[in-house]
Amino acid sequence: MKKLVPDPPFTAPRRLRDPELDAANASLLLSLHDQKQPLLAQLQETRSQPFGLQDAQQRPLFAVQAGVNAEEALMHVSLLLKCAEEVSDEITEQGSGIERGLIWSMVHSVEMARAVVDALLDGVRTSR
């Protein structure tokens, strides 16, 4: 049987990803795979880190305390991200137009960040 319509010309698939990014990811995955102990166990405890507003003498009102282990710090980060997610959800309902899209973008970014933290914590819990 004769084809009435010829095949379209062959075009090589485009690479949508950056080769440098692929190489960096491969290197990172290789080094993580070769670790003797879990990455979370290798993290050091927190150092004191002031943040936020300062009083009249330029002393910070708030600070991350020194000596908190990485797992506890990540658990707190997850809680903070959950709070930010819930607040953002509420604000989204009040927004309109471009504001609403920007807020949704922030909500999804916070959700993704929390998912990464939770996945790290779940990985530590299942490896024990």
Structural descriptors:
mainly alpha; 4 helices; 58% helix; extended; two-stranded antiparallel sheet
Descriptive overview:
This protein is mainly α and 128 residues long. The chain has one domain (38-127). 58% of the residues lie in helices and 9% in strands. The chain has a two-stranded antiparallel ribbon. The longest helix has 30 residues, at 98-127. The protein starts with 18 loop residues before the first helix and ends with a helix. The model has no long low-confidence stretch (mean pLDDT 83).
Tally of alpha and pi helices: 4
Distance between the amino and carboxyl termini: 64 Å
Give the class from helix and strand content and strand pairing: mainly alpha
Determine the strand fraction and express it as a percent band: 5-15%
Task: Please write the string of helix (H) and strand (E) elements.
Answer: HHEEHH
Strand arrangement, major sheet: 1-2
Task: Tell me the domain tally.
Answer: 1
